[in-house]
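Reading a protein record of the kind used here takes only a little practice. Each token is a code from a learned vocabulary of local backbone shapes. With that in mind, consider the following protein and its fold in token form:
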Amino acid sequence: MADLSVAQRAALAQLIERCPDRVLSQLSGLAGTMAGDRSAALRDMIEVETLDRRRRDMAFAPLLVLFRPRADGLPGLGFPPAVLGRLWRAATRHEPELLPQLDRDDDLSRMIADRLCLSAAVAVRDRPEQVWQEASRSQTAELAACLDLAAVARRALPHLPEWVGRASPEATAELKLALRQAASVAPDGASRLLEVVFAHLGDARLILRVVGLAAPGAGRDVSAETALGESELGLFVDRVLFTLARRASEAAAFDATAAEADLDGFKTDLDWCAETLAEIDVALPLKADSAWGKAVRQARVKLALHLSEQFSAAERAVDAVLPVERAALVGRMTRPTPRLDGAIDPSAAQRARALAALVGLVRGPASVFGCEAERRQTAEALTGRLAAWADEAMERLNDGEAADMATARKRIILTSELLGLIGARDASRTVRRRLMTAGAASRVSPPAA
């Protein structure tokens, strides 16, 4: 079979170049199952591209995350992924003989990687139209400035696990040294280096630990909050608090009884806000009267008030599906007893399910917002009410007082379901076990006379 023509190679080269890494790996596996000269040529082209990308990733390792969007959607420094390939070609155009050295992992390979980053910075400044044609002057300047800091970031990032963990004095000193070195490269180099660090953090809230360590003047006569507020590093605190305010507002506007309410999404927002508030309390204690302190308190109070309203609504919704009637005792004395007739209102039942599920779902984060005691009190009250109603309803069922056995059993099954949703699983199982035998005597035909 004939080999690939020049035009075919050019077309395939462009296609392979545009393939994401995941697709390129799949294409390599597919080409490996094919036979013939052309498939062999395709495999060779894929291997060359894979090797080139591995070298690119080694050279640009500290900055690669800047070419990927953040998974959590928080704002941060970033560049289009399509720029990366053009940037690499511009950096290696004049020194291709250096590339094989990147296949090793030693000091020389890291020196060459730093040199290629500087070459890329020069290319961005001198030939921006070849690297990022649609960018503004400020965008290309930002990209070049990040490339200038690649060497500092490469030496600093191995210490990142220590900075977000239990930082030792040595790790703290490494952070401050890296920030000083970044500031010597450019006046705003320290904040730009922290942008790179921020991009490497899958959990954005951990940046609070890093900036807490980096706060200039903190630990002497100035609090970390004041030191950060007076420096450019406060931007990262603002970023986290802005997202906290947004997600708290979204959670506070959540209506569990809406037709398409996403209870899982609500729980995700609530957990994120609770974890963020806990992180702030530990990593960056705030003054109550400061702007940051007021923002944190406002988010906490907003969520606590919303949950309190939902707890009250849950009690009303559950009462609505536990109908009662007055039963005679002695003389004119009566008492309320479960009413077992009448069909269940589907909308009322669904509302009770949604709000009962919310009461059980927020057990963890409610303690951070200061309303766990109210949640627990609501859950205990609902458990008592549901269990007592179900118990008496089954007694009436056993006594043959239910006109419609199927409807009565459905109501009792609903109480068991609600008990499970609020977290009273033992009570829910008890109701279900008793219901299996409830009413059995009333269903047995009397013996013939």
About this structure: Residues 6-59 form one domain.
